[in-house]
Structure formats: structure tokens, C-alpha cells
């Protein structure tokens, strides 16, 4: 969590840093700060609140001619969000400045030691401890900044992506990473530093992604040297050409990124299967799967690890993979898996799903699975992310940047990739009949059109949203493939509208949640024609007889549920297995409109951040 931006070059640093921070606000947005160096003085502004608050608070330095500086947008870990705890933090001498994304776990003993040596602290943060530790090392051992950072980091336990500046040596910024992402944009006579490439996309398409335990001294007119923090060995910088473009990270006329991303789904699902799926020729292939087909085919079990929405996509995949391939699948929250000494066999295949590719718990689960000898396959969206590099092989979802904190297109593109994996394995194992195999391929190929059709439910979703926007609670029910969609619908609602919502397998309702039902309780029921329709109809009747308000997602032309439900949203017909790709669309729209009507900040809901790089 937290976004960091740095600049060193010939342009005015202030506007670059502020714009960059706005693009990184998805990573955290409870406070923000900036440091510029104008050749004489440090110019620092920081505040609780968003980058727009920082802009208002830093108008006195907005015209600064400084061509070096750095900025931070925060998601608090140590210390409440307030002006003092905001980054940057300055060392006791007033010379060293730091911005930090991550957590220093052993900051307490380090702080104690520094207090004994006479250091004082104004904030509650671990970051202020780190900058003073660097200062102490620099002073004591008479080191240059780069070396002092390296020595200090070797005493630190935790995660970090940092930029450090020294007023006494003002033509360089020292950067380092462990567990939190850090990209360096390489321009002509200028460098950009950021948590991802979005802050510098319009200036350069050349980026270096630091690996864990690497650091660099970024200096003008000097070749960039990357070193290993532990043993000081040099690493050859690998410059990647960026695939992202500016248009992808702007709202493109939509009020919110979330809405834009919901509407992008027909296109991005196509991008996900482009070149991988040729229905008429019976081809479904992905390089990462082809290269490791034997491992998949000999897997005694597939373990899926993920968090949040990606975990829900994993649950959908469990149903699909087991049905299509008969390989047993288990889905685990990465955060539980990593700490419960799980049984992992060398012939297990572990699939890690993550939009950002940076989720700390998923990353840790991958490392654990690798230690135990399993083959780990990643399904990620962000190219070059930590998870995509840490896994043995993988497949990108190609959804393009997802900026809204609530995942939408990530979910449907993850399901698309996982369905293709299931189909490929089923073909190799012969566990699907030829006709079913071709039918699914063909159906997957036309899913984008069906998603497009499902998006036509927008007005209906808005109408229903207006009726239920003040509800304090909401239940989501689904069966089979649509049980995970019920969980996902509830997560979408709670995270952006702050309405308490729960997802349940529809039949579980009578084992407890039914007690909640009265005339105040909206119940969203996913009831497409395929699947366990009759059973869901019975569940709807049970709700009806207890006066619950039913909002049903039904297949176009449905008659039975229409008669029972208070409101219906129609979607196009699909096979049961592929229905989550469609049924989820109206639920995304419903939560979006409810959140907008409640005046919530849809793209940046409270207390959240887009990528959770702390455990
Ligand atoms: O980047 P990841 O897919 O690993 O992120 C996992 C979760 O943090 C994420 O899905 C989160 O639950 C979203 N806010 C859900 O909309």
C-alpha cells in the first residue's frame, strides 16, 4: 500500500509528482506529502487527506523551480492518518528525507536504540525510525548515502520501497525495494521513480522494475547501477518497454474508473482470449500452460490461493476445473494458507490469482508452496508484477490497468483465463465430450457479446438502486457456479457503499440467515435458467413467505421468478458453467449505483487500497 513518486531531471518536479501521486492514489489515500529541493532548501508540504488536499496546502511551493523531488500518498499502517505521520519524513539533522511504502516490523527495538542515542521522533511511524537509522549509520560509519542506506536496510525486518534524499548530496536519490514494488522510468537526462509506471507513462516507455533486495542510486548523467542489498553484487539493469498507454489510465468520459472498467469488460475479455482461443479449430492454448502441460496433467490436486475478489474467481474456477477435468481443487485464502502449515505435495499444482500481482499474502503463499516443492502458476493482470515474477509460469489476464479499488474486469478476465485452463486440460485428459468441448469454446468466444447485452441492465440496476440505497443490510444468494458470484456481489456492495452485505449458497439460508429476513431485508437472488433453477425458485418462495424483498437476476424471458420477485434484472442465456461471467455484471452495476446515490467515493472507498502489500 502507499504510492511513491520521485523525479530527478530538468523539468519542474512539482507538477510531475502531484500528477503521479493522483495516479497512484488507488494505492492509498489517507494522507499525502511532497518534498522538493530548490538548490538551497528543502520544500516540504504534507497533510492528512487526498492529493487534492495536498495541492491546496502546497500552493506556496507549486511554482518551485526544483527539478528534483519526491511525493507520497499513504495508507496508514503505523500511526493514524494525520499531518505529522504523513510522509516525507526528515531525519534529526534535517538533511535526510525519506518516502516509504511498506512496514518496518522491527521498528520498536530500533527506535529504542536510537532514543538511547539521543534521537527524537515527532511521528508514530516506522518510517521516521528508518530515516534516523540511516542517518545514524551514515554519521557513525562516515558513509555516503547509498552505502548508509544499504547498511541500514540490512538491519531491518519488513517490507519497503523507499526513496531517500540527502540535502548534502542533492543530485541523487537512493531507492531500494523488498516486498513493495518500485519502477524506475528511464528518460533522456531524467529519471522517474514510482510504485508503478503510471506516473511516467507520458514521458518514457522505458522502465526498470527493481527486484526484491535490490537498490539503486539514481543520478543524472551517470549510468544506473543496481546492486543487491545483501551482498553488494552488481545486477545488470533490464529495461522493459511498457505496454500501458495514457488513455488506459484515464477515465475516458466516465464518471468513475469503476464504471469505465465495468463497461470495458466485453473488450477486455476478448483481449484475454485473443490469440489463445480459436473455437472453430478447437484450439485453446496459453504458452504457460502448454510449456507445463505434463505438470498440470499429473497434478493430483490443484490448490488455488488468492484474496478478495480474486479468491471468488478461484471459487468459480474450483467448480469449473473439477467439472471439466475431474482434478480435485481446493481454494484457500492466501492469508490463511500461509500460516497454517498446509499439506502441499510436490505433485500439487498451485494456482495463485491476483490482479495487482503484489498482494502480500498471496506472494507469501506462493513462496511457501515453492519451498514445499509445488509447481506454482500465476494468473495476474499487472505485467512484470512481483507475483508474475515469483511464479514458475503463468498467464496474464490482459485486462489493462484496473484503477477503481473495487475489482470488476479483473474478476471476469480471471474467470476467462481459468476457464481456458480447464478446457485445455479437459481436452488433454478427455474428460469432456468432444461436443461439450466445442460448445464451451464457442460459447466462450461469444461471451463478450453477452456481457455487452448484460450491460444493458444498467438503467434497471439504477432504478433498483434508488429503491434500496438506504437499506442497512443486504443478502446475496446463489447456487453452484453462482454461489461465488453471490459472495462477489456482496463484497462489491459492502466495499463501496458501506452497506453490510453477506453472500450465501441459497440453500444454506435455512440454516441460519433466514432469521434475518423481514420486510426490510433486500435479498439479491441469482436465478438463471440453467443450473439449479427449480431449487432457487423454492428458495425465493421461502424468502417471499417471510416478506423479504427479492431482487432477482434471471434469464431473458423468465416467467416463474418474475412472478415471485419484487424486481428482476434480465441477462442473456448462457450455460451454467459460464454464467458467472454474465450474472456478475448487473451486480457490479447495482453496487456502483447504490454507492453513487449514497454519495460514497466509489473509486476510493474508505479504509481500502487497491493493492494490499501488507499482511
Ligand atoms: O490484486 P489482488 O487481486 O491480489 O487483490 C486481492 C484483493 O485485495 C482484491 O480483490 C480486493 O478484495 C478488491 N478490493 C475487491 O474489489
UniProtKB/TrEMBL annotation:
User: Which residues belong to any copy of the SIS domain?
Assistant: 292-431, 464-605
Q: Quick one: a GO cellular component term?
A: cytosol
What does UniProt list as catalytic? 2 (nucleophile), 610 (for fru-6p isomerization activity)
Major subcellular site = cytoplasm
Tell me the keywords, alphabetical order: Aminotransferase, Cytoplasm, Glutamine amidotransferase, Repeat, Transferase
Q: Which reaction does it catalyse?
A: D-fructose 6-phosphate + L-glutamine = D-glucosamine 6-phosphate + L-glutamate
Q: Does the keyword Repeat apply?
A: yes
Please, which domain of life does this record's source organism belong to?
A: Bacteria
EC top class, as a word: transferase
EC number(s) given by UniProt? 2.6.1.16
Quote the Pfam families the UniProt record gives: GATase_6, SIS
Q: What biological processes does GO assign it?
A: carbohydrate metabolic process; fructose 6-phosphate metabolic process; protein N-linked glycosylation; UDP-N-acetylglucosamine metabolic process
**Molecular function GO terms recorded:** carbohydrate derivative binding; glutamine-fructose-6-phosphate transaminase (isomerizing) activity
**CDD domains annotated for this entry?**
GFAT, SIS_GlmS_GlmD_1, SIS_GlmS_GlmD_2
Domain Glutamine amidotransferase type-2, residue spans: 2-221
Concerning InterPro entries, the annotation shows: GATase_2_dom, GFAT, GFAT_N, GlmS/AgaS_SIS, GlmS/FrlB_SIS, Ntn_hydrolases_N, SIS_dom, SIS_dom_sf
Subcellular location, record wording: Cytoplasm
Where are the coiled-coil regions? none
**Subunit structure, per the record?**
Homodimer.
The record ties this protein, via PANTHER family, to: GLUCOSAMINE--FRUCTOSE-6-PHOSPHATE AMINOTRANSFERASE, ISOMERIZING, GLUTAMINE--FRUCTOSE-6-PHOSPHATE TRANSAMINASE (ISOMERIZING)
Q: What's the stated role of this polypeptide? A: Catalyzes the first step in hexosamine metabolism, converting fructose-6P into glucosamine-6P using glutamine as a nitrogen source.
Question: Per its record, how is this protein called by name?
Answer: Glutamine--fructose-6-phosphate aminotransferase [isomerizing]
- Identify the species of origin: Flavobacterium silvisoli
Phylogenetic classification of the source organism: Bacteria, Pseudomonadati, Bacteroidota, Flavobacteriia, Flavobacteriales
Gene for this chain: glmS
